[in-house]
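Encode chain A's predicted structure.
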Amino acid sequence: MFIPQKTNRGSCTQTPAANRRAGSAGLAFYIALLAIVFSLLTPGLSAQDPMQDFRLLEPDTLKHTHVWTPGVLKDQFMMHPDRKSDGWWFPHAPQQHKPAGWNIERVHIGKFFDHMGDRSLTLDAGGNPHIAYGGKHLYYAWYDGTEWHIDTVDDSWDVGYCTSLAFDSGGYPHISYYDRDPNGNLKYAYRDVSGWHIQTVDSSDNSVGLYTSLAIDADGHVHISYSDVTDGNLKYAR
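Encoded structure for chain A:
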């Protein structure tokens, strides 16, 4: 009759001291393996000093910093908390070279925004830029020739996607945009001498208001085209 033989399965038959030695050896092996893989992927780092390409940045400077990892990981970033200083380790950023003839500025730092529309930028009569954008809230930024100004137009949550911006004959801005969660509505904001005003244009049961495009006719009437994502329809409001 065949009788299965009992087998030793690591820690089930080893002493506690042997278990610790085996565990330490296994951990050391995996650490060494990860170090080898990391050195192959990031040839710019020195094996003698793996932090030579890093510098310590305080948390309040993160919003001003471009992050970059040497080697093939350059499109990602690494962030390590430093327990002694409560700062963050970031790789050194390479020297930024602007294309000839372009002047690049940071308009709004530290705010979440997403899905900017292709008509979110408009120039006023003086050639100064005005930008409508959002995601967390709806924001409006404009340059007066000297400095940037920023308004929070709609402080509702999760609004300001897919903006379209236009000026009326008086030079006042009008913005169409998407109110995502939980409403899924098309919204419209405009400014006059008394300030900003907000309207919900389409609040049907469907998810409407994506990919907005706004225009103002010679009589000052506002026209908006947009998408009904639920039914897959193009819609128009005036």
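The chain is about 10% helix and 35% strand.
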